[in-house]
Amino acid sequence: MSEILLSRLSDFLGAQIGLHFPPERWPDLERGIGAVAREFGFDNSDACVQWLLASPLTRNQIEVLAAHLTVGETYFFRDKKTFELLEGRIFPELIRSRRGTNQRLRIWSAGCASGEEPYSIAIVLHKLMPDLEDWNLTILATDINARGLRKAAEGVYADWSFRDTPSWVRQTYFSKVAGNRFQIIPSIQKLVSFSHLNMAGETYPSTLSNTNAMDVIFCRNVLMYFAPERQEKVSGHLHRALVEGGWLLVSPSEVSHILFSQFRTVHFPSAILYRKDSENTPNLDPCPCLPEEAVLELPRTTFLPSEPEPPTVFFPEASELFPVAAEGPFREEAQISLYEKALALYQQRRYAEAVEKLASWLSKHPNDTAAMCLLARAYANEGQLVKALEWCEKAFTADKLNTSCHYLRATILQEQGALEEAKVSLQRTLYLDPRFVVAHFSLGNLALRQGGTKEAEKHFENALSLLQAHRPEDILPESDSMTAGRLMEIIRSTVYGATFS
Q1: Side-chain half-sphere CA neighbours of 335 within 13 A
Q2: Are 305 and 233 in contact (CB under 8 A)?
Q3: d(CA 21, CA 28)
Q4: Distance (Å, whole) CA 276 – CA 396
Q5: Rounded to whole angstroms, what are the CA distances from 129 to 86, 91, 256?
Q6: Among residues 59, 82, 133, 320, which is most buried (max CB within 10 A)?
Q7: In whole angstroms, how far apart are CA 242 and each of 194, 427, 431?
Q8: Is 168 a residue whose pLDDT tops 90?
Q9: Please, what sign has the CA dihedral across residues 224, 226, 229, 232?
Q10: Which DSSP string do the residues of 151-162 spell out, in sequence order?
Q11: CA distances, 160 to each of 73, 156, 182, 346 (Å)
Q12: How far apart are CA 19 and CA 66, in angstroms?
């Protein structure tokens, strides 16, 4: 294949799905595209590339490209020292700090490939938490490769996935099935939820994709697929996706004090981790259970991306969804600015600053329902669910017919694990507005979590029917900037072990 065609293909893939192939990786690209060509029935790679370049990629084309151009090779408990650190120090401290109070723990395996990493995380937490059933535990696993996700959801593995893995893992947590393969036991399998996500092009963190308020994020061997400027953006998204004090784990080859300068760099004897700490918490002990000599913290430096990223707006019609409250025909400009500053901060996902300004605004305007809803959302995105629900209930009391408030309440209840109450709130949302697309989608996801495949299919079909009235590029209300076309793709994707058409 000519260098000109490889260059065009590389630029096209970067623009379409975020995969970055600089010239030194063109041999990998050429090998991968050869496999893509064979799958699509082309006799030569050049003809396949010309076909791909002719129009925007379809969902099926993206799936095939992701399957052949990303490396899905991994195994259980890959990087033993990292898992030893998690089991001996990071997870125990998180569990101790939450036990008896807010028994909630949220972990995200970003770029989970065929699922060995998130299942390894689930096994560690199962060992550490004898009271696991009393916890609201989320282990989210995402990947761009839909085929890998299907394999992960099945939970069936061959010997190669257990290389360099302690024998007790397979003996305790797997059962042998046909073909000399091993099926992960149901009690571990149910702890992990799998979802399709392209980290280069999706809007996250988001309550809709469940990528918000994470305690620990694994993002190992993912950033290497992106161009430097996109790596910076992904780093910013991951920072916002963590709660205060949350941990980010990357592979040793991806460690970068410049790329992750928003975080506090923490040196353990066996690994380097990144922690999200606010500017006003200098010298924070990253784990009180650690001996003083075990940790070396590097000072934080200011993160200055080469090209400032424009703020991601959650709601395209922000003035409509969160109108500035009026208590008379006129208000002071200073008051207007205070609310609008809070809204702008929220839209930039600077939730803590938005909370501060909203609290000040509500002290003068206690009946402003829009401000209450916005404050509840800001708290929810920070992981402060008790406060979020408190403010949501206040807004709900002030305006019982507010569909956004009902939907917000359902979202918070789902994160708290109160699934039946969340279901009631979603049903009330649809009673008030039967065309509320994301509420149908959320009910479908909720039904899947509860094992109701047929019920989920009904809700997803309702959502798909409503989406037909939208243009693919339309931003959906209450969707964290998700387009109608993207939600349609998600619903149709086979990421839950069933296909909904």
Answers
A1: 15
A2: yes
A3: 8
A4: 32
A5: 13, 10, 33
A6: 82
A7: 19, 30, 34
A8: yes
A9: negative
A10: HHHHTEE-GGGG
A11: 10, 12, 11, 46
A12: 9
What counts of helices (H) and strands (E) characterise the chain?
21, 11
One-letter identity of residue 364: K
Helix (H, G, I), strand (E, B) or coil at 215: strand
Residue 499 burial (CB < 10 Å; 0-12/13-18/19+)? exposed
Length of the chain counted residue by residue? 501
Q: Mind listing the pLDDT tens digit for each residue in 436-454?
A: 999 999 998 888 777 788 8
Q: Which tokens belong to 439?
A: 């509420």
467-497 pLDDT per residue, tens: 999 998 888 888 877 888 878 877 876 334 4
- Mean pLDDT, the chain, whole residue set: 83
Alpha-helical segments (H) within 322-452: 333-347, 351-364, 369-381, 385-398, 403-416, 419-432, 437-449
The answer to whether the CB of 412 falls within 8 A of the CB of 385 is yes
- Check pLDDT > 70 for residue 230: yes
Handedness of CA 272, 274, 279, 282 (dihedral sign): negative
pLDDT in tens, 73-120: 789 999 999 999 999 999 999 999 999 887 899 999 999 999 999 999
Cβ neighbours for 492, distance < 8 A, ≥ 6 positions apart? 59, 464, 499, 500, 501
Give the closest residue to 297 by CA, choosing from 310, 314, 285, 312. 285
Residue 368 · residue 384 · CB < 8 Å: no
Give this prediction's pTM. Answer: 0.73
C-alpha distances in Å from residue 113, one per residue of 198, 253, 395: 12, 18, 41
Gap between the Cα atoms of 482 and 103, Å rounded = 30
Instruction: Match 């024998």 to its residue by tokens.
Output: 167
Distance CA 224, CA 69 (A): 12
**Cα separation, 367 vs 416, whole angstroms:** 26
End-to-end CA distance of the chain: 37
The pLDDT confidence band at residue 394, using thresholds 50, 70 and 90, is: very high
> 213: buried, middle or exposed (CB in 10 Å: 19+, 13-18, 0-12)?
buried
* DSSP strand pairing (242-249 vs 272-275): antiparallel
